[in-house]
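Protocol step 4 of 6.
Sequence for LLM class flavin-dependent oxidoreductase (Amycolatopsis cynarae) entered exactly as in the expression construct, tag removed. Do not edit the line below.
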Amino acid sequence: MSSLTDVKLSVLDLSPIPADGDAGTALRNTLDLARQAERLGYHRYWLAEHHNMPGIASSATAVLIGHVASATERIRVGSGGIMLPNHSPLIVAEQFGMLEAFHPGRIDLGIGRAPGTDQRTALAVRGSMAALGAEDFPQQLAELMAYFEPNENRVVNAFPAVGHKPPFWLLGSSGFSAQLAGALGLPFAFAHHFSAQNTLPAVRLYRESFRPSETLQKPYLMLGAAVICAETDERAEWLAGPSGLTFLSLRRGRPIPLPTPEEAAEYPYTDLDRQFLQERFGSNIIGSPETVRKGLEKLVSDTGADELVITTMVHGHADRVRSYELVADLLH
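Step 5 output, structure tokens:
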């Protein structure tokens, strides 16, 4: 059975935009956090693709990955993830082949199949109603992977990609990607932070479906975990307030930038709001270092995860850096 000291720790960053800030500040904060994560010994730094969300600045994910990789020296940098149905496989191959050529041995290509946004925005991203489905995701994935391999008979090529293939990951929040990742012998990253009820079934399905490949001889599981760590439980809960209010607003169709803890504390929540937030955020790990240690140890023990990729959505940049510092200390 795995323990916390056996796993690698990584960062998942959405470049949060605070209510009193802007996207430029959020992106500069991402570069600073990436440098801090490298200093603290985190294994990889992943950026997520989301669109039309006023509180998230990481929409042009490949562009941001290039900047983060250039601002750091050793830490692996990648996508958590690129939502493949939003893009042509050729373009993704060109982008990540180029990133790998610039930063050899440091780039990860994590692939998902969700839109990363609402349906109207997905239509704007993909350009047609016919492209809104994801039924051909396995075929898109196969096409993408093929572009990284030489083929003299192929008419269309992604020239930066051939010879510059980053490691592929599949991301998921249900059983579909778990089963596909297992069948292809790829590492699998599961979004425990927003699909906790599906975690154990998906993990089991991934391991049962796994077939050894050139990439992996045995399953490799990463879990996404939402973590907020502060010196005390009370401080951590205070810092967590904005994340809950942001999600509540998104659910109501009115997405907002990340509010301050004061604004979150003063909001007039209904009993139904509180019940919803408890159900949605009950799997988040929030508290003092000791509380967070217990939560992470239980997650690793229950799942046998090989790696945890931690996302921390708090209003203040200094509080976010401090949270990652405290979590890193748990492994030392």
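Step 6, annotate. The chain has twelve helices and ten strands.
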